[in-house]
Amino acid sequence: MDNNNYMPEIAFHLEHPLMERIVELREKGYADAKATVTPSAAGEGAGEGRLYPDAPVDYEDAIENYKAILDITADVAANIIEPNAESVDLEGPHLENGRMIYASKTYENLEATRRAGLHGVSMPRRYGGLNLPNTVFSMLSEIISAADAGFQNIWSLQSCIDTLYEFASEEQRQRYIPRVCAGETMSMDLTEPDAGSDLQRVMLKATYSEEEGCWLLNGVKRFITNGDSDIHLVLARSEEGTRDGRGLSMFIYDKRQGGVDVRHIEHKLGIHGSPTCELTYKNARAELVGSRKMGLIKYVMALMNGARLGIAAQSVGVEQEAYKEGLAYARERAQFGQKIIEFPAVYDMLSRMRAKLDAGRSLLYQTARYVDIYKALEDIARDRKLTPEERAELKTYSRLADAFTPLAKGMNSEYANQNAYDAISIHGGSGFIMEYKSQRLFRDARIFSIYEGTTQLQVVAAIRYVTNGTYIDIIHQMYDQCLNLDNYVSAKTESTAAIEQLRPLRHRIATMTELYEHAVAYVKEADDAEVHDFLARRLYDMTAEIIMSLLIVDDAARAALTGSECADQFFRSAGVYVRMAEEDVIGKSTYVTRFIREDLAAFRAAQPAKEPQA
Amino acid sequence: MALKIVVLAKQVPDTRNVGKDAMTAEGTVNRAALPAIFNPEDLNALEQALRLKEQHPGSTVGVLTMGPPRAGEIIRQGLYRGADTGWLLTDRLFAGADTLATSYALATAIRKIGGVDIVIGGRQAIDGDTAQVGPQVAQKLGLNQVTYAEEIVSVKDGRALIRRVIDGGVETVEAPLPVVVTVNGSAAPCRPRNARLTMAHKWDHCPLEAESFVAPSGAERGALLNQWSVADVDGDPAQCGLSGSPTKVKAVKNIVFQAKESKTLTGADADINALVQELLNEKIIG
To answer: What is the pLDDT of residues A409-431, one digit of tens each?
Structure first.
């Protein structure tokens, strides 16, 4: 009766070698499993006397727990959320007397995820959470997004609670975290009409009222996802007279207080189920989180990093679903006397979709694992002083997480769009018809490369690691470990045939890396800020493609050596992905190394500074 | 008032997704080829029980099932959704039971449990489709029964208000406790498994399951579930299992539905007119 509702690819990433370290840090020596209560307070049944009967006793037990929650999530996604998705897309939310009302089936979805206990999952057990690592949270996100990307927004905004946990007082944690674990929803109220990508311009006013003994918020927020949520994190200007990010602080607004109304709900191209609200604050009572003036500089940065990983997971879910739709149609549809999947033009598209999916997913979970290690160490540092080794580990993984997050978000959001586009291409005329799911995926995906920082801004976040050599160091390290037998300790076979089979791909990655390094050196030598910014996107793409090439080759080797059922698929995807990356790296490195400052003139001239005179 | 609720649940082969190997050459169900699942209407019954528990603080829900040791999974599935306890009736003497022997075993166990206010089961199991077990349990215990229930609307002052499906509509009836209720598939679907409860109970098992129960590390901390033999429920072996089952299967035949006669018509006007005339004559249309 133990059905595995989730995909073997997810099980594969769940069993990555780094997971053991993540679980060990996260569970802090499995302390929760040892915590006991007095017999009278203990519940009936399993684990009597244990304060947290759900806490794992060791690594294997934790993995069993993760498998259980993945299975439950996949069950809810397949049997409740996905069947509701079309109706939610058609109905959408609406406004009633300043309140946002979800599409009716969204309430059904929320009821199901609450019943299943899928809220506040990353929080410590003492607040009512399940203490899940980010890697597992990302897996749940992916599964829910594949069922309905719009609902994933509402559900995954629970991760705002991570920021509250990290920076709010213990008293605030105790008041708010259990509510989120019980299923209350969250939002992050950051953007305003004149402050989108540039959050330094936030003007929502926070003033401390001696009379009321609390902060009061006044002003307008715009484009707020799930803006009528129960608990808001709000970025507001607490320092009168300031104009930049240093005057901003972070606040908690509790909907029970009143004072915030929804003025408008946007009509959007996609993710219709996810309400995007314009909010008006009129003396809304709010609480300060952490220290004044740290709102943007520290807290929003933490919030955004978590949110970006959330979009990467959302993107992978849609990459998966678009591939599934395209594949099913191509297998079924016959033209010219054969199934269209038999045509090279079609199977080329499908194999690329699959390769992007497998490589993109690998990048997502690699990033999530890096985030997990450094976040868990940071959390331990709240209780005790870290050892010098732990401090070094924290630094390494925090640097890796910072470098990987913009790649995971940017690339996967682009891949989701590309896969959704190709799914429609495979459907031909039918793909343009509203009855097919592909059109919804195509509309939903479009926002992924825009919100939580556009792809162009992911490039800005990543480019410093290109030029300061961080990525090149990472690529060299990954290259040394890739197909190195010492790196596959969990191997279940003595045969190294798989490794030998993959070696030619690794060799091609070495050649790509040389071209990439040459291109990076060329841009650095040019020493021209505008040329550097102009070429940044191409350097970013090459970086991500080489890293994903290494990841997918590594996955193929590990899958083969551990006897994973994904092995054959990963071999195929590695072959396709490396060729695809090679094609791109050769083209882009050529473009970069042949570019000179004077070339900019042609691009600028294409956009006249003024409207032409009549 | 706090209620003591027992849910009758059965582990069944998933006959909803049958492949070509679903039947053996002998015409019996090939259990090995079909996944074992929680009987769907029993899940509807469980949901009604869990809702009553939420409405009546202090209530308990226990899942009672009969089957081989692996049917302990039914109890775990109940615990994952919020049930408090469960009992597995397992004994070679229970094996081969028809509905009469099954209801005898279940009724005996319910007497053993004692003090039960409401027994809720699914209308019928998808492997047998008899819808007899619930009513027989009520009869054997001398309790009132309400069948085809869609919702247990309320329980107040020792009486349950129940909405049930009837031909062409619904009716709402009232029954004094204790009562046996069988729930129709049109009732509210069962809630999903709860993550925390699943994590907490995943190693719980019946003693006889221990051998087959693969638990890498946590098995020793799983709670032991109640497992009852014929002797444990003070049952009469003669009324249990094969010896307590008057049903005798004489033969099993594969039935293929076939239209007795068919006509092939062309799209020509003459054919269409003839068909319309025939349908008019037979008062099928008109």
So the answer is: 999 999 999 999 999 999 999 99
Which residues of B, range 260-279, sit inside 8 Å of A by Cβ?
Answer: none
B35–A54 CB contact, under 8 Å: no
The structure tokens 């909803």 sit at B16
Q: What is the mean pLDDT of chain A?
A: 94
Query: Is B195 close to A68, i.e. CB distance below 8 A?
Result: yes
Q: How far is A43 from chain B (nearest CA, A)?
A: 10
Q: Do B198 and A69 touch (CB under 8 A)?
A: yes
Whether residue B219 lies within 8 A of chain A, CB to CB, comes out as no
Distance between CA atoms of residues B281 and A55, nearest Å: 74
Are B66 and B93 a contacting pair, CB within 8 Å? no
pLDDT digits (tens, 9 = 90+) for A138-154: 999 999 999 999 999 99
User: Pick from B35, B191, B199: which is nearest to A68 by CB?
Assistant: B199
Query: For position A610, what pLDDT does the model report?
Result: 66
Mean pLDDT of chain B: 90
pLDDT tens sequence across A197-231: 899 999 999 999 999 999 999 999 999 999 999 99
Q: Are A276 and A154 in contact (CB under 8 A)?
A: no
Please judge whether B223 and A130 are an interchain contact, meaning their C-beta atoms are less than 8 angstroms apart. no
Confidence check: pLDDT of A43 > 60: no
Instruction: Flag if B223 and A46 touch (Cβ within 8 Å).
Output: yes
For the record, the structure tokens of A319 come out as 């990459």
Burial track B58-70 (b if 16+ CB lie within 10 A, e otherwise): ebbbbbbbbbbbb
DSSP class of A80: I
| DSSP letter for each residue of A428-444 | GGGGGSTTSHHHHHHHH
* B4-244 topology per CATH: Rossmann fold (3.40.50)
Mutate to test the interface with B, among A5, A115, A144 (most CBs of B within 10 A): A115
Query: What contacts A431, CB < 8 A, 6 or more positions away?
Result: A423, A424, A425, A438, A439
The size of the A-B interface in CB pairs under 8 A is 91
A533-537 long-range Cβ contacts below 8 angstroms, 24+ apart: A534/A595, A534/A600, A534/A603, A535/A591, A535/A592, A535/A595, A536/A459, A536/A460, A536/A463, A536/A466, A537/A455, A537/A456, A537/A459
* φ/ψ of residue A281, rounded to 5: -105, 125
Q: How far is A52 from chain B (nearest CA, A)?
A: 8
Q: Which residues of A touch B200 (CB under 8 A)?
A: 45-47, 53-54
The structural domains of chain B, with segments of one domain joined by +, span 4-244
* Residue-range domains of chain A with CATH: 8-184 (1.10.540.10), 187-296 (2.40.110.10), 302-455 (1.20.140.10), 470-605 (1.20.120.470)
pLDDT in the model for residue A47: 46
* Distance, CA of A318 to CA of A424 (rounded, Å): 13
Residue A614 banded pLDDT, cuts 50, 70, 90: low
- The residue of A61, A70, A111 whose CB has the most chain B CBs within 10 angstroms, and thus the best one to mutate to test that interface, is A61
Cα B228 from Cα B112, distance rounded (Å): 10
Strands B36-38 and B11-13: antiparallel
Which amino acid is it at B44?
Answer: N
* CB neighbourhood size of B197 (10 A): 23
CA distances from B124 to A246, B8, B29, B137, B235 (A): 67, 11, 17, 13, 24
Confidence class of residue B215 from pLDDT cuts 50, 70 and 90?
low
Q: Are A117 and B201 within 8 A, CB to CB?
A: no
**Cα B24 from Cα B36, distance rounded (Å):** 17
Interface of B with A in 90-149 (CB under 8 A): none
Residue B76 contacts by C-beta under 8 Å, 6 or more apart in sequence?
A: B201, B202, B204, B205, B225
With CB atoms and an 8 Å threshold, state whether A130 touches B195: yes
Query: In angstroms, rounded to a whole number, what is the distance separating the alpha carbons of residues A576 and A351?
Result: 7
